[in-house]
Design brief:
mainly alpha; two-stranded antiparallel sheet; 2 helices
Length: about 60
């Protein structure tokens, strides 16, 4: 959904609709399920370490 910015009328703020939020949540669930199934045979410490590294990589890419 597009709305005029409350701070600067020249800008447009983009916000998720309810359907968009549902789609995003479903996508996150699917990603988590895939990750869990791929590493299900790993011990918990290895799964956590790998997930932490993936989060770190994602954070660095987004910056």
């Amino acid at each position: 959904m597009r709305e005029a910015s409350e701070v600067d009328a020249r800008r447009v703020a983009v916000k998720l609709t309810g359907a968009g939020r549902e789609l995003l949540n479903a996508s996150h669930r699917w990603q988590q399920e895939r990750f869990d199934s791929l590493v299900a045979h790993w011990d918990l410490a290895d799964r956590k370490r790998f997930a932490d590294y993936l989060r770190r990589l994602a954070d660095e890419v987004v910056e």
